[in-house]
Amino acid sequence: MDSLRHGARLTAILLTLGISSLVSAQDRTALVIANFDYGEHQLTQVKTDAATVAEALRKEGFRVTVAENISGKELKNTVEKFARSTVTRGMAILYFAGLGGQYQTSNSEGALRNHLQGAGKPQDSRNPEREFIPLPDIVKLLSDHSACTCNLVILDAAGTNPFFAGRTNQPSGLAAVQATDLPSDTAVLLAATPNVTLEQPSQLGAAFAKHLPRGRDSVDKVLTAIIDEVRQKSGEKQVPTATKSKLVATASWELGANELFLETPLARDGERPGQHWINSAGMVFCWCPPGQFLMGKAAQDGQADFEDAKPVEVTLTSGFWIGKYEITQLEAERLKVGAGRYPFPGKHYPLHMIQQGQASKLISALNDQERKAGRLPDGWEYALPTEAEWEYACRAGTTTRYAFGDDESQLCRHANYADRSLLESDGAMQFADARFDDGFAKALAPIGSYQPNMWGLHDMHGNVAEWCLDRYLPQLPGGENPRIDEKNKAAAPAGIIRGGSWCSTAEYCESAFRNSEFSGGNAKGRDYIGFRLVLRKK
Fold it and tell me: What are the boundaries of the signal sequence (predicted)?
């Protein structure tokens, strides 16, 4: 029997925008906007700075999109396309170099807001702000559509704006950005002190490119180094200002493991267990190679078998890609096959309250969508995992109770399950284990909050139980590529869920534990059931 114990680390990327882009192999994406053509006002340094920044980002593993001389009308669509291209739990950087300013809008309630100006000469010289996009709009686009857990916006736009030269009451520079105006996953770096107009060329682009590698440690370190560099080079005449949350400040990106990423626009067989690939919707997948394993739970250490999971030998003749994370609220919406805007608790949380049949319809629509777009290889399909595929991926080569071993006390590091925090939040949950605390009470956890298994998969234990393709029979099917599917619906009316959830005991979270859930026409969605995708050959 094969014993597959290879480790894997994060991320890959492949995505295509409708703008000029470079495909790389990371979960890090960047948009560099260089607006240097403003009619008779040409900002020659902007083009140079943008090229320097773009090259530095590529060297740090970012997939970079460069957009030059974007009009005011195009700015919104450009940013939204970029936001929709970002990768689940990845890193996104938006760098804008060009003209900006601050002014009041009809919906700003008298407050001064930062705005970035589209390229070209304004059609109405008396109201150049009509060619702007407000910074709050950019922040909202990232908040609504970026799948990243860290979004960094850099505004290199504090120079003199010639289109405001005739205004006697025009505020200088850019307005201060308040932390309360930003989501916790977004940070903003201004080129200069608020309300100060730069009277010399900006040093920000060069400093950003120089210190970008510090982001391997943390975003906070790269921002601090940039600010210090610019202050020194400008003789204190330019002092960049950062507004960031603790969440963003401690974020970082990892480098040096490109060999673990599959660089291809269309999926194909992976090369090693845990290798990562990312589809056109920014969803991360991990490779599970063909192999054999003992499915179910054998008696050990005085523990009995699960009655409906007595061990059987299983052979999977083909490898498959499986979602690194449970399907999120944002991913379902981004695919345009979900039920609309994500409900509480938010975009980084697992999709839930979904029936097995609903999940299957969603996946069928996804297959149709991706085939029509030419993003699904011939002979491949998205699907729910079979029960055998799910347990094989969960175990990742292990034979223990959990993917991390047999020690139940370690489950709180790997799973959101029925623990002390749940019991404290709801005294009726008397079955919860008061000995351990996973950090989440009566609630879902954002995907990826816990340690992954050896093949890079998160939340295989706990959070939401996950639908499998199979129907439930009181014994495991063994043999080659076993599947109890819709053809057996009459004999097996219930569906299979695996992995346990936020309200499951430690036993229910074991790799081998099986549970059934009614999945007929009158079935109701549950707040503890979701799913993850596989991509396999038919």
Answer: 1-25
Contacts of residue 398, defined as CB under 8 A and 6 or more positions apart, other chains included, come to: 5, 404, 405, 453, 454, 511
Joined tokens for residue 416: 């959101």
Element containing residue 465 per DSSP (H, E): strand 465-471
Which of 226, 249, 272 is at the close of a domain?
249
The whole domain housing 498 covers: 264-537
Q: What is the dihedral of CA 330, 332, 333, 338, to 10 degrees?
A: -150
Does 514 map to a domain?
yes
Q: What is the DSSP letter of 385?
A: P
Domain count, the chain: 2
Positive or negative: CA dihedral 380, 386, 388, 393: positive
Amino acid at 77: N
- Quote the CA–CA distance of 114 and 126 in Å, as a whole number: 18
336: in domain? yes
Taking residue 273's Cβ as centre, other Cβ atoms within 10 Å add up to 22
Run of H or E residues at 189: strand 186-190
Pairing of strands 380-383, 514-518: unpaired
pLDDT 10s digits, 271-308:
999 999 999 889 999 999 999 999 998 766 556 567 89
Claim to verify: residue 425 and residue 515 sit in the same structural domain: yes
Query: Cα dist. 479→322, 388, 475, 513 in Å?
Result: 21, 10, 13, 19
Write out pLDDT tens, residues 388-433.
Answer: 999 999 999 999 999 999 999 999 999 999 999 999 999 999 999 9
Report the pLDDT value the prediction gives residue 301, as an integer from 0 to 100: 58
Q: What's the 3-state SS for 305-351?
A: CCCCCCCEEEEECCCEEEECCCCEHHHHHHCCCCCCCCCCCCCCCEC
Cβ(402)–Cβ(387) below 8 Å: no
Strands 479-480, 312-316: pairing is parallel
Per-residue H/E/C for 166-180:
CCCCCCCCCCCCCHH
| DSSP assigned state of 402 | B
Q: Which two tokens stand for residue 126?
A: 């008396």
Q: Are residues 285 and 231 in the same domain?
A: no
Average pLDDT, rounded, for the chain? 87
We report the CATH number of the domain holding residue 440 as 3.90.1580.10
Residue of 95, 94, 93, 91 lying closest to 27 (CA atoms): 91
Q: Are residues 343 and 301 in the same domain?
A: yes
3-state helix, strand, coil in the chain (%, to 5): 25, 20, 55
Sheet holding 479-480, edge to edge: 291-295, 312-316, 479-480
Beta bridge partners of 32: 66, 95
428 and 356 within one domain: yes
Output the pLDDT for position 110: 66
Q: Which of 99-108, 129-138, 139-148 comes out lowest in average pLDDT? A: 99-108
Quick check: is 259 in a domain?
A: no
Q: Is 484 exposed, middle or buried (0-12, 13-18, 19+ CB in 10 A)?
A: buried
451 or 264, greater pLDDT: 451
The residue type at 525: G
Instruction: Please indicate, yes or no, whether residues 217 and 273 belong to a single structural domain of this protein.
Output: no
Domain end residue (candidates: 214, 249, 284): 249
Q: Are residues 161 and 35 in the same domain?
A: yes
